[in-house]
Write a structure and sequence with these properties.
Its main location: membrane. The structure is a single chain. The chain is mainly beta and 278 residues long. Helices cover 6% and strands 24% of the residues. The protein is elongated, with a radius of gyration of 25 Å.
Length: 278
Protein backbone atom coordinates (compact mmCIF):
# COMPACT_ATOMS: atom_id res chain seq x y z
CA UNK A 1 0.00 0.00 0.00
CA UNK A 2 1.14 3.55 -0.70
CA UNK A 3 -0.42 7.00 -0.50
CA UNK A 4 -1.40 9.51 -3.15
CA UNK A 5 -0.83 13.11 -2.13
CA UNK A 6 -2.29 16.17 -3.81
CA UNK A 7 -0.97 19.68 -3.16
CA UNK A 8 0.73 18.60 0.05
CA UNK A 9 -2.21 16.69 1.52
CA UNK A 10 -3.06 13.01 1.61
CA UNK A 11 -5.54 12.17 -1.12
CA UNK A 12 -6.01 8.38 -1.12
CA UNK A 13 -4.48 5.08 -0.03
CA UNK A 14 -3.70 2.69 -2.88
CA UNK A 15 -3.51 -1.07 -2.29
CA UNK A 16 -1.63 -2.89 -5.04
CA UNK A 17 -3.09 -6.23 -3.91
CA UNK A 18 -6.51 -5.22 -5.24
CA UNK A 19 -7.60 -7.21 -8.29
CA UNK A 20 -8.20 -5.06 -11.36
CA UNK A 21 -7.39 -1.42 -12.12
CA UNK A 22 -7.65 1.29 -9.49
CA UNK A 23 -8.90 4.74 -10.33
CA UNK A 24 -8.82 7.80 -8.07
CA UNK A 25 -10.58 11.03 -8.98
CA UNK A 26 -10.65 14.45 -7.35
CA UNK A 27 -12.61 17.58 -8.26
CA UNK A 28 -11.29 20.83 -6.78
CA UNK A 29 -10.25 24.38 -7.53
CA UNK A 30 -6.55 25.19 -7.62
CA UNK A 31 -5.27 28.61 -6.50
CA UNK A 32 -1.90 28.21 -8.24
CA UNK A 33 -0.82 27.72 -11.82
CA UNK A 34 0.51 24.24 -11.05
CA UNK A 35 -0.41 21.22 -8.95
CA UNK A 36 1.63 18.68 -7.03
CA UNK A 37 0.81 14.96 -7.17
CA UNK A 38 3.09 12.67 -5.14
CA UNK A 39 3.30 8.92 -4.60
CA UNK A 40 4.47 8.34 -1.02
CA UNK A 41 5.75 5.27 0.78
CA UNK A 42 3.94 4.04 3.86
CA UNK A 43 6.92 1.84 4.73
CA UNK A 44 10.45 1.19 3.47
CA UNK A 45 10.97 -0.96 0.42
CA UNK A 46 7.75 -0.08 -1.36
CA UNK A 47 7.61 0.77 -5.07
CA UNK A 48 4.71 3.20 -5.67
CA UNK A 49 3.70 3.45 -9.32
CA UNK A 50 1.21 5.23 -11.52
CA UNK A 51 0.00 4.36 -15.02
CA UNK A 52 -1.83 7.52 -16.04
CA UNK A 53 -2.53 11.03 -14.79
CA UNK A 54 -5.24 13.08 -16.49
CA UNK A 55 -6.14 16.72 -15.84
CA UNK A 56 -9.36 18.27 -17.14
CA UNK A 57 -10.75 21.82 -16.77
CA UNK A 58 -14.28 21.86 -15.37
CA UNK A 59 -16.81 24.72 -15.18
CA UNK A 60 -17.81 26.10 -11.78
CA UNK A 61 -21.41 25.04 -12.33
CA UNK A 62 -20.62 21.46 -13.27
CA UNK A 63 -22.83 20.11 -10.49
CA UNK A 64 -25.78 22.01 -9.07
CA UNK A 65 -25.19 20.78 -5.51
CA UNK A 66 -21.40 20.98 -5.36
CA UNK A 67 -19.69 24.13 -4.14
CA UNK A 68 -16.41 25.18 -5.76
CA UNK A 69 -14.93 26.29 -2.42
CA UNK A 70 -14.33 22.71 -1.29
CA UNK A 71 -12.93 19.55 -2.85
CA UNK A 72 -14.81 16.45 -3.93
CA UNK A 73 -13.30 12.98 -4.02
CA UNK A 74 -15.23 10.47 -6.13
CA UNK A 75 -16.26 7.46 -4.05
CA UNK A 76 -18.12 5.69 -6.84
CA UNK A 77 -20.09 6.34 -10.01
CA UNK A 78 -22.42 3.49 -11.00
CA UNK A 79 -24.38 2.89 -14.18
CA UNK A 80 -27.21 0.47 -13.39
CA UNK A 81 -28.51 -2.16 -15.76
CA UNK A 82 -25.44 -2.22 -18.01
CA UNK A 83 -23.35 -5.35 -18.34
CA UNK A 84 -20.37 -4.19 -20.39
CA UNK A 85 -17.09 -2.78 -19.12
CA UNK A 86 -17.29 0.72 -20.58
CA UNK A 87 -15.31 3.22 -18.53
CA UNK A 88 -16.42 6.34 -20.35
CA UNK A 89 -18.58 7.77 -23.12
CA UNK A 90 -17.62 10.03 -25.98
CA UNK A 91 -20.88 11.90 -25.31
CA UNK A 92 -19.83 12.70 -21.72
CA UNK A 93 -18.52 16.28 -21.84
CA UNK A 94 -16.80 15.79 -18.45
CA UNK A 95 -15.12 12.48 -19.41
CA UNK A 96 -16.38 10.69 -16.31
CA UNK A 97 -15.75 7.00 -15.75
CA UNK A 98 -18.89 4.92 -15.16
CA UNK A 99 -18.80 1.49 -13.53
CA UNK A 100 -21.51 -0.89 -14.82
CA UNK A 101 -23.69 -2.47 -12.12
CA UNK A 102 -26.15 -5.30 -12.64
CA UNK A 103 -27.88 -6.10 -9.34
CA UNK A 104 -29.52 -9.35 -10.48
CA UNK A 105 -28.57 -11.02 -7.20
CA UNK A 106 -30.97 -8.70 -5.37
CA UNK A 107 -34.09 -9.63 -7.33
CA UNK A 108 -34.10 -6.60 -9.63
CA UNK A 109 -34.44 -6.61 -13.40
CA UNK A 110 -32.37 -4.80 -16.01
CA UNK A 111 -34.12 -2.91 -18.77
CA UNK A 112 -33.18 -0.85 -21.81
CA UNK A 113 -35.02 2.22 -23.09
CA UNK A 114 -37.06 2.04 -26.29
CA UNK A 115 -35.44 5.29 -27.50
CA UNK A 116 -31.87 6.49 -28.10
CA UNK A 117 -32.17 10.26 -27.57
CA UNK A 118 -32.86 12.19 -24.35
CA UNK A 119 -35.02 15.28 -24.93
CA UNK A 120 -34.22 17.06 -21.66
CA UNK A 121 -31.23 16.40 -19.40
CA UNK A 122 -29.98 17.83 -16.09
CA UNK A 123 -27.39 20.52 -15.37
CA UNK A 124 -24.94 17.72 -14.53
CA UNK A 125 -25.08 16.52 -18.16
CA UNK A 126 -24.92 12.75 -17.68
CA UNK A 127 -24.16 11.04 -21.01
CA UNK A 128 -27.28 9.85 -22.83
CA UNK A 129 -26.08 6.22 -23.13
CA UNK A 130 -25.84 5.99 -19.33
CA UNK A 131 -29.54 6.88 -19.13
CA UNK A 132 -30.69 4.23 -21.58
CA UNK A 133 -30.16 1.40 -19.08
CA UNK A 134 -31.79 1.01 -15.67
CA UNK A 135 -32.82 -1.47 -13.01
CA UNK A 136 -36.32 -1.96 -11.61
CA UNK A 137 -38.14 -4.03 -9.00
CA UNK A 138 -40.60 -6.26 -10.91
CA UNK A 139 -43.65 -5.80 -8.67
CA UNK A 140 -43.17 -2.17 -7.64
CA UNK A 141 -44.63 1.11 -8.93
CA UNK A 142 -43.66 4.08 -11.08
CA UNK A 143 -44.52 7.18 -9.05
CA UNK A 144 -42.63 6.70 -5.82
CA UNK A 145 -41.36 8.64 -2.79
CA UNK A 146 -37.58 8.82 -2.48
CA UNK A 147 -36.32 8.15 1.05
CA UNK A 148 -32.80 8.99 2.15
CA UNK A 149 -31.52 7.45 5.41
CA UNK A 150 -35.15 6.72 6.42
CA UNK A 151 -36.20 10.35 5.87
CA UNK A 152 -38.69 11.23 3.13
CA UNK A 153 -36.94 13.28 0.47
CA UNK A 154 -39.04 13.66 -2.66
CA UNK A 155 -41.80 12.14 -4.78
CA UNK A 156 -40.37 11.29 -8.19
CA UNK A 157 -42.50 11.60 -11.33
CA UNK A 158 -40.22 10.71 -14.26
CA UNK A 159 -41.19 12.02 -17.68
CA UNK A 160 -40.71 10.00 -20.85
CA UNK A 161 -37.33 10.73 -22.53
CA UNK A 162 -36.42 13.23 -19.80
CA UNK A 163 -33.59 12.97 -17.29
CA UNK A 164 -34.74 13.39 -13.67
CA UNK A 165 -31.87 13.98 -11.22
CA UNK A 166 -31.55 14.78 -7.52
CA UNK A 167 -28.68 15.90 -5.31
CA UNK A 168 -28.45 14.86 -1.67
CA UNK A 169 -25.89 15.78 0.99
CA UNK A 170 -25.26 13.34 3.82
CA UNK A 171 -22.89 12.80 6.74
CA UNK A 172 -22.83 9.01 7.07
CA UNK A 173 -22.86 6.21 4.49
CA UNK A 174 -25.70 6.75 1.99
CA UNK A 175 -28.75 4.50 1.92
CA UNK A 176 -31.37 5.42 -0.68
CA UNK A 177 -34.74 3.63 -0.85
CA UNK A 178 -37.17 3.73 -3.75
CA UNK A 179 -40.61 3.19 -2.20
CA UNK A 180 -43.51 2.52 -4.65
CA UNK A 181 -46.69 4.57 -4.38
CA UNK A 182 -49.93 4.72 -6.44
CA UNK A 183 -48.81 3.34 -9.78
CA UNK A 184 -48.82 0.11 -11.74
CA UNK A 185 -45.27 0.59 -13.00
CA UNK A 186 -42.08 -0.03 -10.99
CA UNK A 187 -39.55 2.56 -9.77
CA UNK A 188 -36.33 2.65 -11.77
CA UNK A 189 -32.85 4.09 -11.31
CA UNK A 190 -30.27 4.64 -14.06
CA UNK A 191 -27.12 5.86 -12.36
CA UNK A 192 -25.68 7.34 -9.19
CA UNK A 193 -22.63 9.44 -8.32
CA UNK A 194 -21.30 9.66 -4.75
CA UNK A 195 -18.60 12.09 -3.62
CA UNK A 196 -16.81 12.82 -0.36
CA UNK A 197 -16.78 16.59 0.18
CA UNK A 198 -13.99 18.53 1.84
CA UNK A 199 -11.57 15.63 1.50
CA UNK A 200 -8.74 17.98 0.53
CA UNK A 201 -9.74 21.51 1.41
CA UNK A 202 -7.63 24.56 0.68
CA UNK A 203 -4.03 24.63 -0.43
CA UNK A 204 -1.09 24.41 1.92
CA UNK A 205 2.22 24.33 0.15
CA UNK A 206 5.89 24.93 0.74
CA UNK A 207 7.00 28.51 0.07
CA UNK A 208 7.33 28.91 -3.70
CA UNK A 209 10.73 30.58 -3.25
CA UNK A 210 11.93 27.51 -1.35
CA UNK A 211 10.51 25.19 -3.99
CA UNK A 212 12.32 27.12 -6.74
CA UNK A 213 15.58 27.23 -4.79
CA UNK A 214 15.45 23.52 -3.95
CA UNK A 215 14.71 22.68 -7.57
CA UNK A 216 17.72 24.71 -8.69
CA UNK A 217 19.94 22.63 -6.40
CA UNK A 218 18.36 19.36 -7.56
CA UNK A 219 18.78 20.30 -11.22
CA UNK A 220 22.44 21.13 -10.56
CA UNK A 221 23.37 17.69 -9.23
CA UNK A 222 22.54 14.37 -10.85
CA UNK A 223 22.67 12.58 -7.48
CA UNK A 224 19.66 14.56 -6.23
CA UNK A 225 17.38 14.18 -9.22
CA UNK A 226 15.69 11.08 -7.82
CA UNK A 227 13.88 13.25 -5.28
CA UNK A 228 10.46 14.70 -5.91
CA UNK A 229 8.44 16.45 -3.23
CA UNK A 230 9.12 19.15 -0.68
CA UNK A 231 8.01 19.88 2.89
CA UNK A 232 4.47 18.52 2.79
CA UNK A 233 3.10 16.25 4.00
CA UNK A 234 5.63 16.21 6.82
CA UNK A 235 5.59 12.40 6.83
CA UNK A 236 6.99 12.29 3.29
CA UNK A 237 9.11 15.42 2.92
CA UNK A 238 12.52 15.30 1.25
CA UNK A 239 14.97 13.42 3.44
CA UNK A 240 17.65 16.09 3.16
CA UNK A 241 15.39 19.00 4.13
CA UNK A 242 14.22 20.28 7.48
CA UNK A 243 11.11 22.43 7.31
CA UNK A 244 9.33 24.79 9.64
CA UNK A 245 5.74 23.95 10.54
CA UNK A 246 4.42 27.49 10.30
CA UNK A 247 0.92 27.76 8.85
CA UNK A 248 -0.03 28.23 6.08
CA UNK A 249 3.37 28.24 4.31
CA UNK A 250 6.19 26.00 5.58
CA UNK A 251 9.74 27.08 4.82
CA UNK A 252 12.98 25.15 4.38
CA UNK A 253 15.22 25.90 7.38
CA UNK A 254 18.13 23.50 6.78
CA UNK A 255 19.66 21.23 4.14
CA UNK A 256 21.88 18.20 4.72
CA UNK A 257 23.60 17.27 1.47
CA UNK A 258 26.40 15.20 3.02
CA UNK A 259 26.87 11.66 1.78
CA UNK A 260 25.72 12.35 -1.78
CA UNK A 261 29.21 12.90 -3.23
CA UNK A 262 28.32 16.28 -4.69
CA UNK A 263 30.98 18.15 -6.66
CA UNK A 264 30.96 21.45 -8.49
CA UNK A 265 29.44 24.87 -7.94
CA UNK A 266 26.21 25.46 -6.06
CA UNK A 267 23.52 27.20 -8.12
CA UNK A 268 21.90 30.41 -6.92
CA UNK A 269 19.35 29.69 -4.19
CA UNK A 270 19.34 33.13 -2.57
CA UNK A 271 15.52 33.24 -2.60
CA UNK A 272 15.46 30.71 0.26
CA UNK A 273 15.35 33.38 2.97
CA UNK A 274 14.41 31.04 5.85
CA UNK A 275 17.39 28.72 5.25
CA UNK A 276 19.70 28.77 8.30
CA UNK A 277 21.92 25.70 7.98
CA UNK A 278 23.50 23.83 5.08
Amino acid sequence: MFHLEFNGKQWAAVSTSTVGPQHEELICTNPRESISVCLAWTQDGQSPFISMLELLPLPDGMYANMSSDTSWRTLYRYMYGATDSILGYLQDKYNRGWQPRNESDFGVMSLTADFTLIISTSVDYPPDPALLHAIMVPSAEFEFPLYFQDVYFYTVRPQYRNCTSFGIQFIDDPAVYLIPNKSDLPPIINSIEVYDSGYIHGYRATSQDDVDGSKAIIDGFEQLQQWSGACLPLSSSWQWLTCSEFYPTPNVTSMNLSGYGLQGHLPDFSQMRALKTM
